[in-house]
Specification:
333 residues, mainly alpha, 4 domains, two-stranded antiparallel sheet, 16 helices
Length: 333
Amino acid sequence: MSEENENVGAVSQSRYEQIVAELRDVVEQQTRGQFTIGDRALEVEPMRQRGGPVGESEYTVEQSLKRLAEDIGLSVATVKTARWVASRWPKERRRPKIASYTVHRSLANIEDEDERFAVILTPPDGKSRWSADDANRRVGQQVDTPITPQEKVTAIHSLARDAEVAATVTTDFLKRPQVAAKVSAEDKVRVVEEFTRDEGVATTAATSLLRRPDVAFKAMSDDTARFQVNSAQAERSRQAHDYFDRTSPVAPAVRNIDRTVEFLDLVTAFHSFVAAAGRTVPGLRDRQLSEDERAIVHQNVAKVKATLDWIETAVDTGKVDMDDELARMLKGE
């Protein structure tokens, strides 16, 4: 089948070309019409310099344009946009035969007017006319039909502005191994951090990850993480002990047992010390210690005496706090 006989939709190629020519005339007329609206809005309210109005006016700019829009049956936003676009394109610079009003509106975002007027004369890629996407692409705005990866990303962002849509899309994407493989380690960490801001989610995730031996080993290599885990374990033990003391009916009996165990530990410590001394001191018979050795023994004897005084006070009064001097002595300061 020759190109001339190919159909476009439900019409032949020749009929399609007739439709395009007809509609280009319509678009050109619409472009001129939109510019006419903008020109008349400019006539009613010229663009003003920042800092104040031009001359005396019964209405503010907003009021004037609102009245004009109501009187011609358009929205204020449409009239305002037409006024601004007309101000950016003097009549002699408009090109309705090669660019629609939509294209003029997009290219109006080019700040430098010399650049703006030159750009509209040169459609991209050797085309004879500007398309709306070409114009938006030129000024960095979102296109209707994205081509480049960045344009597709922008389109996805636009579609995923709703939080629920974004969450669903993100979840679906991360389930695709080929997508997850291309995400950098730093980005993956940031994603996990964002997903685990909720304490319940963070707890579940951390628990699951620490059940993996390789992960747990590497995590515990971090000093801060290891400290936090140890602190959490100590705090959990304290809370469990407090809860047991408050709620268990056998807690008083256990406390008595604890006190008995502590008593036995203390007596055992005394016995161990006395037994060790009984074995060691006789070995000093006829032995002369050096001055440094005697000084060390005297220092430790002083520690033992101070500790014994502390034990006696604790046993007699129940107060186990030690004074600063004893604390420094036991630390070897």
